[in-house]
């Protein structure tokens, strides 16, 4: 074994160098804030030009930390509450807003840009600022229904019909944000406890529940491009059909999928300043920027959700292929707050166990 | 105690110091930080016994143990014949096959699970069989590499002697081969078992909410439900199970002893051997090549036809990533190189210490395989928040996390070989007048070169494909290939899926190239 013992000093040396590099990298940042750090979920996206515009105007470099889906990003922020990884968090939706507020995660900040928003969004809780909204809707695979000569469902109630047996895939509301939104949609439609009978029927009709949107949409839903899935109805977003057109590998005239307008549930996504932020002032500038015309008009193309600012022009594919549900469902935050855990537990018993 | 022995002891302690320090800082500290946060309430420890005795825990623990045991058995069943064919014989294309076998091992689990859904018939795709099959697919490489490297070093004159003495072929395999391979088998089986025991991506995609392992349930509880107390209880249970496995396998490995190094190169198969070797290699390749082929086809399918558009678009900016996708390839190579360097720097002295009988260090080294990536990731967030180790948001944390996962492979590949180096060979060379330098060059290096190359290759491959820990620490502007694939799969649209598939193919190609290169460099070194 003397060969290895011979190698040892080299190995030790290498380790010391590696450690030095690590420490050096770690100590790189100076004291005066030159950057602002955004903590967010994996779906966050912004065009390069828009990001550069912010960096140029503010003189700050924008660093983005992504941490799983909306739920996971919030949980990581809650874990480090008071000693945050960044200055601003984006992607808290209203179904989990109460957890962020109770977790004492955020500083109050009321942006002067709020006045420019659509009336629905003008007066949020002072700890958060609305940035976009998206509607969770049923999506259907048009080709599948055409091939089988069956009319696609037009309402939540339709899903109980025998002709839609074994066709629906949904997300687990315990682990998925659109999954929770869909559960809330059924509560809003059928009432409490009426929603429970509805889900019992869905179970008898062969609903498949998976843990997250990725599993549901890209692996079980037959209508998504490249998906090996076999189920033609999925819980996704009102904008997913437009995304299928914009990200098609060959130009498409019509989307292979369609959103069902009935039973859509509105999710609003908020941003907030993290308590203990190293660069609170930079964080405020970032939030103001997220409400600016420039950022807001980038929101549909980058993240496939709708802007909250008044009179922002939408991309063409959006106008043509995405439905903007006229009257989306919504439940009051405090009602969600009081019942969420009970509803989700009951759902688990009804559908998974 | 005489002075020479004391000096030896001091040197042995120094050998173990670096690995122990590395694990203490980058593994134990964050782990303790998250456990403290989860289980200490107002200064007193809130022991989660109720969680440990709940129905949910019992169900999950039983399924975890069951599927890991069956998966390991199946993997050995598929892997051993292939290890035999690849290590005992020389034939055209052998190194290409060895390289191909390594490919599945580094594919992101999410991607392979997608390929399985596409390949398996209705009904099977979401059954427990899909999970077992995927585990075999991933882990055959571990058996082939670790057992094969050891098998190649066994002296074939033993079989010749047994045959001369009239032992029938089956008897020879059972009574001679299995005991000789003992330590390598124990090594490989324990790694495969641990991998399946802590399986995550395969379970999440193919198991849905119906099947859960401890690892996937810990992730669920910690990252998604934020029930840290339950997560911590399950994490402790998983750690205990992993520690027990490691201790048992370590004991087995030592008790089983080891074979002797051989002198002659591997022969070409002759007569009936040709048929058997050919059938084994062809059969294994069919099993292993199907999912990667499905991925290649999907990466090339554009609209209704075929083309290379998804590969050319790797250079284009996209909203799914903050950099053009090819950056992810560069990042992956950079991080994996760093991780391999760290894993070797820490792993070589660790293997030496373990080979000398430090079983405690052995168990400690294997524990990162058993620690939930989600809990360790949370621990990183809590522990590394201040200078000089303000690493939680730095790209430098990525190779460290990957090295933690790669370390057990380095140690597992080296320990059986280190134990098998026959002291008498060194002594004989010295008696014949070789200088210590000549002993190293002509006796030890040839014997250890192959296990060292295997260790480095495995460490690199593991780091390239690592997802669970990397996704927790990677920064948006420094994505690795698996992280980028995951981001692309998370968005609707054919173009995003196609880019993900193209990245998979690139990842497979890099791994195959690295495996081929490490084989080739051994050839140039004059061995075989």
The CATH fourth-level homologous superfamily of the largest domain in chain A: Periplasmic binding protein-like II
Sheet with the most strands, sense and barrel status of chain B: 2 strands, antiparallel
What overall form of chain B do the CA principal axes indicate? globular
Mean pLDDT of chain B: 82
| CATH T-level topology of the largest domain in chain A | D-Maltodextrin-Binding Protein, domain 2
**What's the end-to-end separation of chain B, in Å?**
45 Å
Low-confidence stretches of chain A: 1-17, 20-30
Largest interface, C-beta closer than 8 angstroms, per-chain residues: A-B, 77 and 85 residues
* Contiguous runs where pLDDT drops below 50 for at least 5 residues of chain B: 523-528
Largest sheet of chain A: 11 strands, mixed
Please count the beta strands of chain B (DSSP E, at least 2 residues each): 4
Strand content of chain B: under 5%
Element pattern of chain B in H and E: HEEHHHHHHHHHHHEEHHHHHHHHHH
Distance N terminus to C terminus of chain A? Answer: 56 Å
Strand-pairing-aware structural class of chain A: alpha/beta
Order of helices and strands of chain A: HEHEHEHEEHEHHEHEHEEHHEHH
Strand share of the residues of chain A? 15-25%
The chain-level structural class of chain B is: mainly alpha
- Gyration radius from CA atoms of chain B, angstroms: 24 Å
Q: What's the topology here?
A:
The complex is a heterodimer of chains A (353) and B (528).
Chain A: H1 2-26, E1 35-40, H2 48-58, E2 61-66, H3 70-79, E3 88-93, H4 97-102, E4 106-107, E5 129-141, H5 142-148, E6 168-171, H6 177-190, H7 194-204, E7 208-210, H8 213-220, E8 233-237, H9 240-246, E9 257-259, E10 265-274, H10 280-290, H11 293-303, E11 306-307, H12 316-321, H13 333-351
Helix pairs in contact in A: 6-7, 7-13
Chain B: H1 3-39, E1 40-41, E2 44-45, H2 49-52, H3 55-88, H4 94-106, H5 109-119, H6 128-151, H7 157-164, H8 169-197, H9 201-207, H10 214-224, H11 228-255, H12 272-300, E3 301-302, E4 305-306, H13 309-312, H14 325-355, H15 359-370, H16 373-383, H17 397-420, H18 423-431, H19 436-465, H20 470-473, H21 481-489, H22 494-524
Antiparallel strand pairs in B: 1-2, 3-4
Helix pairs in contact in B: 1-11, 1-14, 1-15, 1-16, 3-6, 3-8, 3-12, 4-6, 4-12, 4-19, 4-22, 5-9, 5-12, 6-8, 6-9, 6-17, 6-19, 7-8, 8-11, 8-17, 10-11, 11-15, 12-22, 14-15, 14-17, 14-19, 15-17, 17-19, 18-19, 19-22, 21-22
